[in-house]
Amino acid sequence: MKLALVNSDTENAISSAEKLREFYDFVPVEEADVIVALGGDGYMLHLMHDLLHNDTPIFGMNCGTVGFLMNKFGVGNLAKRIRQAESYCFHPLKMTAVTTSGECHTGLAINEVSLLRETRQTAKIRIFVDGKERLDELVCDGVLVATPAGSTAYNLSAHGPIIPLGSDVVALTPISAFRPRRWRGALLPQKATIRFEIIHPEKRPVSAVADIQEVRDVAEVTVEQDQSIEITLLFDKEHTLEERILNEQFIN
């Protein structure tokens, strides 16, 4: 098994990479069977975006703070850990955003696609699911669509539901909704096509963000799963991503 090693630019990640190189030989990323990544969740998110069109599995080890997407760092038995690891494969969300000037932008999201107001005025957004209008006017700070992997990130902070892996749904979650006041969002099939129309976009400007890519002054945004791209993460059996997401539901 050929392993590649990549790391963030933090002191901890750099020193950890040096320790691994003392015991293992690594190959370039393009020659690897598995990519070993050292850093935190932010680094892993950027790395997955960089490798979206590379189907090599990634085994992350935490050298950051939370490390939700990472395994525990350790020098010993690395090859054995990787061989025994459980894999999680998923498809990113594809965002297609049309601006008020008519420009079309696309982006991919592993965690979520979020729409956010740009000024002091609340956003007014109309929501369609698979071509059917579901909400004629959402008055809010914003709204987001989160994957199961991203449901414990921004979605959870916005009081959205934690989604177990394998449930084949995404979360549609409002951000500080003013009207309808009691609307808490919805769970939708992963294959659903969700379209947002911005009401009065010149007066109430809205930006759209796919993880790390922002498009400002949008008039319409469509979100759907991109099944042409598959990302594989590897996790130690005793602490899989599925277990972490499940455990989050029992943390006060």
UniProtKB/TrEMBL annotation:
Amino acids binding NAD(+): D41, G42, H46, N111, E112, D141, A149, T152, A153, Y154, N155, L156, S157, Q213
Top-rank taxon: Bacteria
Cofactor(s) needed: a divalent metal cation
InterPro entries with a match to the protein in the record: ATP-NAD_kinase_N, ATP-NAD_kinase_PpnK-typ_C, NAD/diacylglycerol_kinase_sf, NADK
GO biological process, one term: NADP+ biosynthetic process
A GO term from the CC aspect: cytoplasm
Compartment(s) of residence: Cytoplasm
Keyword Metal-binding belongs to the record: no
Family statement: Belongs to the NAD kinase family.
Purpose of the protein: Involved in the regulation of the intracellular balance of NAD and NADP, and is a key enzyme in the biosynthesis of NADP. Catalyzes specifically the phosphorylation on 2'-hydroxyl of the adenosine moiety of NAD to yield NADP.
Protein name: NAD kinase
Lineage of the species this protein comes from: Bacteria, Pseudomonadati, Pseudomonadota, Alphaproteobacteria, Emcibacterales
Gene name for this UniProt entry: nadK
